[in-house]
Amino acid sequence: MDFKELISLTGYGVETIGVIIIVTGSVVSSFRFLSHFHKEPEGFAYRIYRRQLGRSIILGLEFLIAGDIIRTVVVADTLINVTILGLIILIRTFLSFALHL
Fold first, then answer.
1. Which of 14, 23, 41, 60 can pair with 67 through a Cys bridge, CB separation 3.0 to 4.6 Å?
2. Radius of gyration over every alpha carbon of the chain, rounded to an integer in angstroms
3. Which of 44-48, 50-54, 88-92 has the lowest mean pLDDT?
4. pTM (2 decimals)?
5. Can you spell out the DSSP letters for the chain?
6. At a CB cut-off of 8 Å and minimum separation 6, what does 38 contact?
């Protein structure tokens, strides 16, 4: 295994962690929402659910961006790939900002 393959696998590993965070956060947030839905005042459980779900998505997106950066900069360092990476980062940053609000 050479250096580029190792870095590529590392990038995919970081992205996998991001996906796991998003899926786990979604499941945990949904379970908490369903278990507290009838116990809380109207709308309160939903606000908590959105906040928890948003946090897990934002954290997962950070890992996905890190994985993209690792793979693009080290493995595929062409101008087209760097441009695509920049667009992906802009889109994910916009999503993170929108979720944060």
1. 14
2. 17
3. 88-92
4. 0.80
5. --HHHHHHHHHHHHHHHHHHHHHHHHHHHHHHHHHHTTTSPTTHHHHHHHHHHHHHHHHHHHHHHHHHHHIIIII---HHHHHHHHHHHHHHHHHHHHHH-
6. none
